[in-house]
Amino acid sequence: MAALEQQQPQLAQLQFEPEEHGHLGYDHQELEQAEQAPRFEYCEPVPEPLRCPVCNDAFIDAIMCSLCDPPTTFCRRCLASRLDKCTRCDNLLSRERREVFDNPVATHMADTLRVYCRYRVGGCHWQGERRRLGEHCGECSKRPSVCIHCGRCRAFEWISRHQDRCGHRLVTCTACGRDNVQARCLKYHARQRCARRSLAAERDELKEILSRLQARDPGLKDVILEISSELKAEARELEIAEADARDREWEVIRVFGSEGGSSGQFQNPRGVAVDQEGHIIVVDYNNHRVQVMSHDGKMISKFGTEGSGNGQFKTPCGVAIDQEGHIIVADMRNHRVQAMSRDGKVISKFGSYGSGDGQLKSPAGVAIDQDGHIIVADYDNHRVQVMSRDGKMISKFGTEGSGDGQFKNPCGVAIDQEGHIIVADESNHRVQVMSHDGKMISKFGSHGSGDGQFKTPCGVAIDQEGHIIIVEYNNHRVQVMSRDGKMISKFGSQGSRDGQFKNPYGVAIDQEGHIIVTDQVNHRVQVLRMPRVLDA
Asked: What is the pLDDT of residue 219?
């Protein structure tokens, strides 16, 4: 800052050529856009010498008024928005009269301030100099992008994976050569509508054409082509209607796991999370271990044995993935949290039995906020603690009870796009949405089996649309809720068939938007697709 102050008197003596338009280099269109100029989220508070007196933010394209003593510095756009009137000396400034000049030192210093990515809320953790922000945002994997097939708007990295697998993309039927079949319709088309699926189908199609010809005037060639086009259009409409009907229903994508202690088997799986590579991390509660599974249910790695040593567990319960890909495990009966690498090495750990700050009683759920803090559902202390990874307590909130902001056995926790903490308040049979400082923003749910009611909600997750996904232990189902507590959809019943549950516990959302549920007493994991009408 001292360098900036030393350079200002020297800059005041420089001579400048007038701009081609306007006093300060802005035309009418730019003046209209001045109020819409992009703002920045700085990593640290902006130093006072670099703050513009108009916008109270760091300088952008700084210029100085030479009539003030000492000269006053503004953003070019801020002075333009005031019609070139200095806020300090109240004079109308003109570059032609040498009353205003550029301040490249202030501009450079402001450009070197560190800022967050504009898509931080979408999960980007980039930090860098402000002048590099535009270059980064143009290549950021979290920048918004649109699927050319279905029109969904998601992060670029999601769209780049999704677009080649989108159900609305057009493919060609290899049997009949039709090139406008939607991919999601192809199986139905081949089974029900394809004109080349069998000789009988070809005969039936020909009969239909001939029957329609009888009702028309001669001119067979043109009529046949017209009818053939009509039949193909009708077939496509039927295919799309069939696919749309399926899209309105829940679908079980895959089920994996069985009871046991071998690789890929489970004993009461509880917490579940999805890492940046799409692997499914499952906490194997009564096997006292963690298993890393591929998306199709094959075991990639596992770690942990029963015990209290480093890397050992006693009935681990909750799991989350931090920004560096570490696996954060709520080690329930060891009353601690361990941060692990995927090959089972302990990165850090914290917690001991007790009710003091940073102590835990049966931690059940964990989540990672946008700042990398670990949110812990302190189950038997009836509270939530916000911790740094090295075990320092940053904040805590909650006491035992049923009032607003109180809990009875908080279990699952999740972070929404606005940074709010979503808590599954298990024994109060409700969900509470909390701020980081412990203020209750909203709540919903009551004891029961009706829509929007709960029986021991355990797992909670947030999908890409901001819906709150809740797993109910004793209602044996999944409910999709809006943040204000309206039930959007539900799925599941008690049983052992695909799509049924016995005391489901944990839930996570993968990159494709599928819902992953640990089906505890069935000793398995189910991957579900919820109705697409919810996330279209």
From this structure: 63
